[in-house]
């Protein structure tokens, strides 16, 4: 059962401008330490950060409407499994909102797709619920 869908597109140039203007302050406000470190090691750091920013926006949309005020940017972290596939890890208020959305006796699953091409980064998030006994790893 689908609980929420979110989509976002971000201008990579916008992220480059934020990095130029605010630098480390922007990274520390929006991204976890791991996200910042991983992105800055990337050949295209602005594109990497833009994908993660888009993922956070898409996740926020998938989690519901304006009622989830209080969700911090860092409550939604884009991580990568051993093969490099991205996934979202929710903590704090974001995790609380996910729990509220998830029906009793069901387990939430978050699917994340990221891509970028020249000028833009895009993220698509689907939050679904499945029976506990049918739960398979998301990574």
- Helical residues, percent: 25-40%
Main structural class: alpha+beta
Strands side by side in the biggest sheet? 1-5-4
CATH topology: Ribosomal Protein L22, Chain A
Which range does the strand content fall in? 25-35%
CATH class: Alpha Beta
Envelope shape = elongated
Largest sheet: 3 strands, antiparallel
> How many domain regions?
1
Query: Whole-number radius of gyration?
Result: 15 Å
Termini separation (Å)? 19 Å
Counted by DSSP, the helix tally is 5
List low-confidence stretches: none
Q: CATH H level: which superfamily? A: 4'-phosphopantetheinyl transferase domain
Task: Give the strand tally.
Answer: 5
Query: Helix and strand string, N-terminal first?
Result: EHHHHEEHEE
Report the mean per-residue pLDDT as an integer.
92
Can you tell me the CATH architecture?
Alpha-Beta Complex
Give a verbal description of the structure:
It is a single chain. The protein is an alpha+beta fold and 139 residues long. The protein has one domain: Alpha-Beta Complex (Ribosomal Protein L22, Chain A), CATH 3.90.470.20. 40% of the residues lie in helices and 32% in strands. The protein is built from five helices and five strands; from the N terminus they run E-H-H-H-H-E-E-H-E-E. The strands form two sheets. A three-stranded antiparallel beta sheet has the order 1-5-4. A two-stranded antiparallel ribbon has the order 2-3. A hairpin with a 5-residue loop joins strand 2 and strand 3. The chain is elongated and about 45 Å long. The mean pLDDT is 92.
Core attributes:
139 residues; alpha+beta; Ribosomal Protein L22, Chain A; three-stranded antiparallel β-sheet; two-stranded antiparallel sheet; 5 helices; 32% strand; elongated
